[in-house]
Amino acid sequence: MGGVKLQGSERDSDTMRHVIELKQDWKFTRSRCEDAVQAVCDESDWETVDVPHDWAIAGPFDKEHDIDRKVQQGQLDVAEGVREITGRTGALPHAGEGWYRKTVAIPTESRGRHFRLECDGIMSRSTVYCNGEVAGHWPYGYTSFALDLTALIKPGEANVIAVHVNNPPHASRWYPGAGIYRQVRLVELAPLHIDHWGVEITTPEIAEAQGVVRIKTRVVDAAGQDGAVVRTTILEPDGKPVLTEETSLSGVTSIEQSLQVDAPLRWTLENPVQYTVRSEILLGGAVTDSLDTRFGFRTLRFDPLSGFFLNEKPVKMNGVCMHHDLGPLGAAMNVAALRRQLTMLKDMGCNAIRTSHNPPAPELPLLASEMGMLVIDEAFDEWKSGKKKNGYNSLFEGWAEKDLRAMIRRDRNHPSVIMWSIGNEIREQMDPDCAEIARFLVDICHDEDPSRPVTCGLNALRGDHNTIADEVDIPGWNYQPRNYGHFHACYPDKPQYGSETASTVSSRGAYYFPAVDEVMLRRDTLQVNSFDMSYPPWGTAPDVEFQAQDECDFSMGEFVWTGFDYLGETTPYQSEWPSRSSYFGIIDLAGIPKDRFYLYQAKWSGRDVIHLMPHWTWPGMEGQIVQVQCYTNHQSAELFVNGVSQGRKDHYRKHKVLESSYRFHWPLVVYQPGELKVVAYAGDDVVGTKTIVTAGAPAAVELVVDCQDLAADGDDMAFVTARIVDKDGNLCPHADNSLRFDVSGAARIAGLCNGDATSLESFKGTEMKAFNGMCVLYLKSIDGRSGEIHVTCLAQGLVDGVMELRAL
Q: Is 199 helix (H, G, I), strand (E, B) or coil?
């Protein structure tokens, strides 16, 4: 429940900072408008939107939005030589221009104050205006930035902030989103204040008895006042102040302090405790600015032979790569939706996120620090050599240093962040001339933060070297499980890990027989087999990476591609339509786990896991062969059909996918309606069972929600899963009934999603078909409105699903 407050505190007096969250009542248009920057503008045809806002996510889907025509084998003839690539960026209308306007009333008593506009990310090529004047420009849509509006703000008047966005086509390999898709706030400050991202905290010495906290504070003194003091207080996790130190600025604008905390509690994955540094600026004894910054006591060690150590305890990174969209919400940031994603991943046993392939929203490392997860912050997908015509290659020369420094300055105080990544599969990686670029970026990272190593996701090795691997502290390897030993021999003094692994593809609940390895297999249904044995030529089934990680003690772990399905990159259906989102996710676009979720949970979570697949409803297939799999971390398992044993399997290792230590396979089961049951054993003792029964005809809609109470703040969300069930409450796994959702009271529909990568129904409607029996409603509270929330889901011929929640 609730949101995350990212910076600052409410104004306690006229001398301290005042944060104005610019969320509601923005005016927006996709039309060209010559008067958009002026104080007076005809907004009668403009939409009223809330920020964060993604202008493209409502659709419509159309393959012409992002169609890419690739010339094959040098041919120019359209009929023979050109391959159409569709759905690459989600088939949504993200390219083009947009305008945002918001009027902010600044009181007369704010005259003489300082004003800073903080933008967490605007996609993309944004220009910000204030009262008709250019305030600044930032092209990379993933970077957080701040602009000084002091000279442009007019206290005592209505001030107009206008933002122009220009999203070029062919700029991304996935769905980038469009517009002001992250938070924006106006911060009012005294002339003497803490600079933007002006507090840097490190813990260079940690012992059981004592921990050293080093704090660097940068101050802006716009009035050139003498006698200023920086007062720094450390607060324990419960908020109790334990140490305070005051240091005179004495004409300087940056000071460094060292404080010692007795018996510091460590930040760990199991107990992610954080302390707080309260930074205050005093002038004549009065506080002019105050800022709270959280941090954690923890040590990192990366060993080339033994892997990664957190607080000197070995930790294998059970990681996933994550793009930034939130399914039916698009790229518009929502804390509750992001928290839901991280919660599901933790439940799977995931302990690390790689932000692929760009700086994340600031909420991600913040939540990861609160929840106990590791983060690799990644900066770029391109350097100078482009993968897309209008990609980051067009910005690199002028902006790479600014973007990289901004990412590090924003996120360096989070204990969750363990490495900085300077790129992913950079095209120049095998070019000796790129060593200079790599050193340039590595040096920036070391300059901004010498406490963390620098990495890069690499996918090539020539002979015994890779140019970027030669320069970074820790090379990460994409899709190389069979080569880890060779890479370790090439770089024996460098820690290493799998920065991108598996790329297994699947569609939730879609099963095809026989269940065998499939490499880039396409079907007329545009779905992918959910037996988790399908992958592109560069990828593997998960089991192959499991074996490589188990055999390579030096490897720090893996980052699976990907934790969730995302919009765009429709492999293996790159040229087929309709297909508008990925199949790579362990969890589908709606946030429903696929079968693979339980395979990783069996490997990673340390909990008892028994997962049986496929479903057991196959009308017309009586007497035919149906393959059955069980994902479990138990020693052995026995399968039964209607009480008749189909054989007992024991774990043993071979260099075959089907004999992995977490997957049992019965390839010759004869389908009979009734009951499919698996019994797990430890020795001869039964330790667990899992049963699936044949479902009857669809009879009702069942609603299941993740929480009953929402915060009435306009940001909190609940996620309601609609399940089509038979008269006994069993999921109907083939059901595709059209569902209509009705919501009344203190919430509204924020999105619908069924997890079907081929669905062209709008995420922002009130109706959507179920996909393999399920669909998810994203329910959002209304700011300031508390009370009952009534949810009804209707499907023709079925008993309605009804649910009541509350906003508090």
A: strand
Question: Strand, helix or coil at 621?
Answer: coil
Name residues whose C-beta falls within 8 Å of residue 316's C-beta, 6 or more positions apart in sequence: 307, 308, 549, 556, 557
Mean pLDDT of 192-196: 97
Residue 4 has pLDDT above 50, yes or no: no
Same domain, 565 and 649: no
Q: Are residues 56 and 27 in the same domain?
A: yes
At 100, which CATH number?
2.60.120.260
| Burial bucket for residue 31 (CB in 10 Å: 0-12, 13-18, 19+) | exposed
Q: CB–CB of 526/757 below 8 Å? A: yes
Out of 378, 500, 558, 702, the active site residue is 500
pLDDT by residue (tens digit) across 154-191?
999 999 999 999 999 999 999 999 999 999 999 999 99
User: Pairing between strand 184-189 and 774-781?
Assistant: unpaired
Confirm if 542 and 549 have CB atoms less than 8 A apart. no
List CB contacts of 216: < 8 A, sequence separation 6 or more.
199, 200, 254, 255, 256
* One domain for residues 287 and 221: yes
Q: 97, 578 in Cβ contact below 8 A?
A: no
Active site residue 518: no
Has 425 been annotated as catalytic? yes
Strand partners, 283: 228, 286
- Cα(710)–Cα(731) distance, integer angstroms: 27
The residue segments making up the domain with residue 167 are 18-189
Statement to judge: residues 423 and 496 lie in one domain: yes
How far apart CA 182 and CA 51 sit, in angstroms, is 7
Residue 726 lies in a domain: yes
pLDDT at 70: 65
The model's pLDDT over 438-477, given as tens digits with 9 standing for 90+, comes to: 999 999 999 999 999 999 999 988 878 899 999 999 999 9
Tens of pLDDT, residue by residue over 574-606, are: 999 999 999 999 999 999 999 999 999 999 999
Residues 174 and 201 in one domain: no
Q: Which string of DSSP letters, residue by residue, matches 323-387?
A: -S--GGGTT---HHHHHHHHHHHHHHT--EEEETTS---THHHHHHHHHT-EEEEE--S-SSS-S
Question: 118, 188, 425, 518: which one is catalytic?
Answer: 425
Tell me what the mean pLDDT of segment 694-714 comes to: 97
> How many folded domains does the chain comprise?
5
